[in-house]
């Protein structure tokens, strides 16, 4: 498999199965305390800005014609954002191409996450198109279970993405603290992710990189899809090449076949399993074994998994993409209806609650 992207995120082990970047090792818990108070409900004042990203020249706008909204102070549609508009707070995490900081827009006091990417690294890694696509797609999406991207700006060396602040961080971190989730909590996350994917697919967006590292948790413990770096507008002939975990890739993707919306349905099944069990279903000592397990859909369910949960995962993890359960039917599946009825929200997570094993 051709390596273009490092899939490493905080905490997921980087072993031979998950060839990745060894430099990503920030522990956000060691960061200093917030330098300002985060309001429970962000103050919102609508703003339209049409800052444009061009990674090569910060004077010439790109042709994407993007328009993003940032609740904030400015009414001037032409005026773009700059770093001086924000007070910077503590680092929230580290990705391969830069860091994410808590930030507050100075005038409105609106709290956001500022993702800072280094242009040199983006150009060296040849992921300029990926970043552009991430911005173009994520700026346009509006759903309670999708992380908002309010806008972006850049200076000579960096690109700054202005993102909704997800107070409780990455779902992956929560999962590692808990070991695994009970069926009710897992079903609520699966339901909310399904709703977000229904919305994305209706907008002709395939995410293609659903995994716990790319799911953030908001103020009310609600799930939010983040990181649209691998997403595409369908139809697309774009092929994917990546490093990082194989665990979430569908059979058609690992075989380099054409793929479509159903890759997200497969990943939903993998995520459901990892939330309930604590490890992805095709986890193995090395990537060739993971590959084999995915190819032949070899799954073992621990005894504590309910029949209804197994039934749902069995209908999502199907080799033939066309035979995977449609997302709208996922929302009507008995396991979801029983464990995640309308209005049910994820319970608050207390790291001291101890682990499920
Ligand atoms: P990324 O570069 O997007 O992979 O982000 C690296 C880490 O920063 C994530 O794993 C999160 O812990 C944290 N992070 C990223 N975006 C946000 C956000 N919008 N709100 C809170 N934490 C974030």
Automatic annotation (TrEMBL):
It comes from the Eukaryota. Gene3D superfamilies: Phosphorylase Kinase, domain 1 (3.30.200.20), Transferase(Phosphotransferase) domain 1 (1.10.510.10). Residues 86-336 form the Protein kinase domain. Its EC number is 2.7.11.1. It is an enzyme of class 2 (transferase). This is Aurora kinase. The lineage of its organism: Eukaryota, Metazoa, Ecdysozoa, Arthropoda, Hexapoda. InterPro entries: Aur-like, Kinase-like_dom_sf, Prot_kinase_dom, Protein_kinase_ATP_BS, Ser/Thr_kinase_AS. Belongs to the protein kinase superfamily. Ser/Thr protein kinase family. Aurora subfamily. Keywords: ATP-binding, Kinase, Nucleotide-binding, Serine/threonine-protein kinase, Transferase. ATP binds at residue 115. SUPFAM superfamilies: Protein kinase-like (PK-like). It comes from Loxostege sticticalis (Beet webworm moth). Pfam families: Pkinase. It catalyses: L-seryl-[protein] + ATP = O-phospho-L-seryl-[protein] + ADP + H(+); L-threonyl-[protein] + ATP = O-phospho-L-threonyl-[protein] + ADP + H(+).
